[in-house]
Amino acid sequence: MKKVFKIIKKMLLTVGILIGIIIVIGILFVNLSPQFGAKTSKEQQKIYAKSAHYKNGQFVNIGGIKSDMSFSDMLKAIGGMFKRIPNARPTPPITVEKVDSTEIANYKGATRFIWFGHSAFLLQIGHKNLLIDPMFSDVPAPHPLLGSKRFSNELPIEIEKIPVIDAVLISHDHYDHLDYESIRKLKHKVNTFFTPLGLGAHLQQWGVSKDKIIELDWWQETTFEGLTFVSTPAQHFSGRGLSDRDKTLWCSWIIQSPNEKIFFSGDSGYAQHFKEIGEKYGPFDFAMMECGQYNELWPEVHMFPEQTAQAAIDVKAKKAMPIHWGAFKLAQHSWTDPVQRVMQKAKELNLTLVIPEIGKPTTINETVSTTQNWWNRN
């Protein structure tokens, strides 16, 4: 019996040591890996405290809405990550249309965009090159082993070949929107970064000069070389680590030239702010609306496709494009469910949708036939 106790004691000691090693490695990874970004300083926090959307050291949604899952819901969410979802990923991988860097650099035509999948765009407007939420890495996570791979094996254009970018707009600091590797490779060719409050700390940590960063609160606007950018509300949350929940703001964006207005929703649950944005700044010639990575466990922070279509109506969009899908599996639905459901609801609401193939240069005025259903040909 004593021998058995000794064996058990050794086993427990070994398990304890292994757990301790894992904890130490985890702590070192979180504190030493640049992917996690930076913490805002006390001086910055004093500045953010002046915002109406900052309370008790955190940014808050309108009405204090937040997504706080119960312990049982968290278990459901974790269990869902291991649940087999039919058609969760495209088979074979998505084939993207390739675009030439010279053609991008020399383009002087009508306002157009190139979609990289998910929420990443190259927008060419007013003879300016803008990037929106440029997440170009393969996995939206602080380490490749911690997330699922992109649905395509390549990008429309590699980061190294992207020409000079006049401005980058970022909606919030989650990994599928703000990517360390992408910023590291892009920063030397970007004129100015525009972010909601707090994100500048991450960018500076990654080597972006402070004088190239402009942070905006909700409803603040700024002009940039003939364009107007407005940071508008979204109903979401932020954070990249274990202790920085809601320490930075999240937002949607309005991009306005003398002749056109574009709305980018960022990530958001469906709420009254869409109507408020529409009343204040609409109508919009084109709207990029979140449509994907939803779940009944977090309806406050991500819209269902039917709500996406209604939100486009609320902001008074003449045309809308469903985004936040087509690149990564971040929720328990098939990869085509977002586009199929939003198409059905858009038909009911008489909403015009634009759903181009990834990488296809598309002007905001052209009609892209959704009957082609390119997503069913992969």
CATH superfamily descriptor of the largest domain: Ribonuclease Z/Hydroxyacylglutathione hydrolase-like
> Separation of termini?
62 Å
The fraction of residues in strands falls at 15-25%
> Structural class of the secondary elements?
alpha/beta
Q: What letter string, H or E per element, gives the SSE order?
A: HHEEHHEEEEHEHEEEEEHEHEHE
Taking strands numbered 1, 2, ... along the chain, how are they ordered across the largest sheet?
8-7-6-5-4-3-15
> Looking at CATH, which topology of the largest domain would you report?
Metallo-beta-lactamase, Chain A
CATH architecture of the largest domain: 4-Layer Sandwich
Radius of gyration: 22 Å
Number of helical stretches of at least 4 residues: 9
The rough form would be described as: globular
**DSSP helix fraction:** 25-40%
How would a crystallographer describe the biggest sheet? 7 strands, mixed
Number of strands: 15
How many separate structural domains? 2
Low-confidence stretches: 21-30
Name of the level-1 CATH class of the largest domain? Alpha Beta
Describe what this molecule looks like in 3D.
This protein has 378 residues and is of the alpha/beta class. The protein has two domains: 1-32; 101-376, Metallo-beta-lactamase, Chain A (4-Layer Sandwich). The protein is 26% helix and 17% strand. It is built from nine helices and 15 strands. The protein has helices at 2-32, 42-48, 71-81, 101-106, 180-186, 200-205, 273-281, 305-314, 337-349, and strands at 54-55, 58-59, 112-115, 121-125, 128-132, 165-169, 190-196, 213-216, 221-224, 227-232, 252-256, 261-264, 286-290, 320-323, 362-363. Strands 8-7-6-5-4-3-15 form a seven-stranded mixed sheet, with no helix packed on it. It has a six-stranded mixed sheet with strand order 9-10-11-12-13-14. It starts with a helix and ends in a 15-residue tail after the last strand.
